[in-house]
Design goal:
Number of domains: 2
Number of strands: 9
Radius of gyration: 22 Å
Number of helices: 12
Low-confidence stretches: 1-77
CATH class of the largest domain: Alpha Beta
CATH topology of the largest domain: Rossmann fold
Length: 385
Amino acid sequence: MFRFLKKKQSPQAGAAPDDAGIDKQEPSGLAPDEPAQPEAVAPPQDAAPAGVSDEPVPAAPPEPASSPAAANVVGGAEPDKGSWLSRLRSGLSRTGQNIGGLFVGVKVDEALFEELETALIMADAGVEATEQLLAALRARVRKERLADAAQVRSALRDILAEHLAPLEKAFPLGSVAPLVVMIAGVNGAGKTTSIGKLANTFQRQGASVLLAAGDTFRAAAREQLMAWGARNNVTVVAQQGGDPAAVAFDAVNAGRARQAGVVMIDTAGRLPTQLHLMEELKKIHRVIGKADAAAPHEVLLVIDGNTGQNAIAQIRAFDAAVNLTGLVVTKLDGTAKGGTLAAVAAGSQGVRPIPVYWIGVGEGLDDLQPFVAREFAAALVGDDQ
């Protein structure tokens, strides 16, 4: 049965998940006759799904109780910008030191450019992005007759910011209600944790939030999302086992009935090589569209910032499956190199320059912040200005 954590509702007649062609006995794969069934989905009903219960579900908290994030509350003060930039520079310090250190006590000559080429490739920027950046830098050095290494470093920061600028885009919160957001990613990327942090962020910006526990494949994923829902005091649509498309379908209808501002749908972590799970992801996308013809309005991929160039393969595979609209890059907190976003902006290996809505540098609620190209570029080149 579906459960909503927050308040109890009386059962009502609504669009039954079974009408969506969903087999609840196969939570980790497709129903045998799935291809012919999505057209049989019942029209959306402006009512919450039947079978509502407020039975508590025990779950461990998503973070240790000692985490600084535990002090944050919904509607609290906005994070300090200076503190955030400091954490971002610290998170990308590995790359910042490698690149920034090249400009100390050196002449502006071909040897410097060769060192920069190696450093950018080692930072996961990839060959295409590295070539584009260095070509622009060489042209700037010649045009402006830059002879000081500090000036070249500043020029590289500006060029990198311009290169990353196409990835900077404001999330369209409030553009439609409910804004249906489908969230995907591989195991361990930080999907569920990111959803919890975004729920907090959206509420602070005045939007009501509803979460859908569509990860019915991973053990304890449902309980983890419910813990985040309880922490943020938001409703969570969940089901014990069953098909994740059913959860997504019901969540969209419930979001409309409850006049939610945002409906965020968690999905099971999967590798692009797990073809049956990628097909399931496509099914969830289709069934969401049956509940709301314009949905999902946003399809986000959560990427672990430590995966390097493997992130390019993930973006390409998930984009082909569900047409991504944005990225969330997590775990840029000490070991990540960060150059992968330069590769995305360059369109390396056939990927589209998909917008990066947020980047994360830690475990706290305030450690997931909007991507700003100039701030990111300054951290990558180790520029403290």
